[in-house]
Design goal:
This protein has 423 residues and is α+β, with helices and mostly antiparallel strands. It contains 14 helices and 15 strands. 43% of the residues lie in helices and 17% in strands. The strands form 5 sheets. Strands 11-10-9-14-15 form a 5-stranded mixed sheet, covered by helices on one side. A 4-stranded antiparallel sheet has the order 1-6-3-2, with helices on one face.
Amino acid sequence: MAGVDLGTEEVLLRVPKDVALVPLGFAIDSGGSVTKLLYRSKEDYENGIRIANVGHDDGILRLRHLATEDCDEIVKFLQDHCDMLETAKTESEGWFLTGLKARLFRKKMEDTMKIKVKTLSEMVAISSGLKGFYSAALLPELRPLSLSEEAVEHALGSTRDFLRMMNSAAAAQTGGDGSFDELKDRIDPVAVGQYVMKLMSTDAPTLTRELSDDVIEWPCLNVICGSAAGMIVMKDSGGFEIGSFLPIAGKTFVGFGRLLCGAKDFAELVEMAARGDSRKVDVMASDMKVTGVTAEEADWYSSLPDSLVAYSMGKLAENAASESFSKDDLAAGLLNVICCAIAKMAVAVARQTKVKCVVFDGSLVNSALVRCTLQKWLLFDSLIQPLIGEQSLKWIFLPYPGFICAFGTWYQNWEMYKGQAEK
């Protein structure tokens, strides 16, 4: 089956027993390239009765990625593998599907599987996923993913370097001795000065706890990182507002990756980026530094941490014909560009909408390398924000991030089923 990768490892998800018994037996989020499927498997159930012995009596659902390119093969996969129950008595208006390509599946399912389906807004699916599955304790064993230790250390080190350079510049201008006590006293308001001292003494594990949380605080900014990046303010009431839209995300990464790096798909491109070194294609702040100059002669680059990117892919402009970088380095630089764009926009929208909590999901951040690269940009900007009078932000990365809409669709079908069963 060309369109469905049956070799992809599935994830078994433990849910309350009644949640697993939605008669339809599956929820689909059909994206532009990848379809996310949440389903009740014939390996675990027969006509809604648990047959799998997995050491508990709760419900079991399975997560799987399928290629969207051929809906006929996905429908066949469901017929062969999904434990579907009689639905005619409980589907008064039809079961929900969601996603960009949901309408392509609708007629095929109605004709082939003889079920009644309808499309669900992705915004409603996201809201139901966040408030239903993650916030209503339907998945009590799931917790947000930990922030990358590498990203936290990188952000903390860069911020401290930035503060040291600020301090040195201030001391040179005022004739002080360069102590941080002096810098703290010179900063207004006093609270910012105290924050500076805290950053210089806080360890990374403590900082990690302060930058993330297990609980979503409403309203939150939901950053959906897929083919593009959508930024939506989700409210406790279930309502939402569009924060912004960024057309630079997964599709851009893969498109340029194929053109410039010769990668055949996302997985190969991420492997290349993991082997590469973006510093061989990016101009770093350290590359811009001039030694042996006075504070009056130094330009503004002198205040930037050495680890900060000054010009993304800038070395290509200076030395494009050189063999000093590989396609792996190019892939790493490309990932850095994509993550920088998403992070900068997310911080800006969070500031504009005055939320305190930013939640990331979407298939792009399913990759640990993508999350780490993104968090390096996010956390550095987040640590700098209080220095300019902005509030600090909490960053939450959801587990199984590409399945948020599939979770929300299952939740909507479950709510509908419960309501019909009570009549």
